[in-house]
């Protein structure tokens, strides 16, 4: 079973990232662009230019993990701001993001209260 680092610090790197980047290059980007330490156990998410590929960089006690997900249809909801370099997410928002749901405006599902 693949487990992700248990942390509440989840960051999205705003804008598009070159998806050819690997672990070393993404970790360097975290240090230089986000001004954060990639070795602290936080989760860092990066999205490609087309928006259908996401890479997640995490560091546990033994080393870095790099996860990649590509959507068959649609694209990941991503902030594009010039003011912010990174956006912080909760675990629930990350779960919505990975399911391809817009984590900024999730829609509620109507459920009837009565059976009849």
TrEMBL record:
Domain of life: Bacteria
UniProt-listed Pfam families: TnpB_IS66
InterPro entries for the chain: Transposase_IS66_Orf2
PANTHER family given in the database record: BLR8292 PROTEIN (PTHR36455:SF1), PTHR36455
Official protein name in the record: IS66 family insertion sequence element accessory protein TnpB
Source organism of this protein record: Mesorhizobium cantuariense
């Amino acid at each position: 079973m693949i487990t992700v680092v248990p942390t509440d610090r989840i960051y999205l790197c705003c804008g598009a990232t070159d998806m050819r980047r690997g672990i070393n290059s993404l970790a360097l980007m975290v240090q230089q662009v986000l001004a954060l330490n990639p070795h602290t156990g936080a989760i860092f998410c990066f999205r490609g230019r087309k928006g259908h590929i996401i890479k997640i960089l995490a560091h546990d006690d033994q080393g870095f993990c790099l996860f990649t997900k590509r959507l068959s249809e649609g694209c990941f909801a991503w902030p594009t701001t010039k003011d912010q370099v990174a956006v912080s997410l909760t675990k629930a928002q990350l779960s919505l993001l990975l399911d391809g749901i817009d984590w900024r405006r999730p829609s509620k599902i109507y459920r009837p209260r009565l059976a009849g």
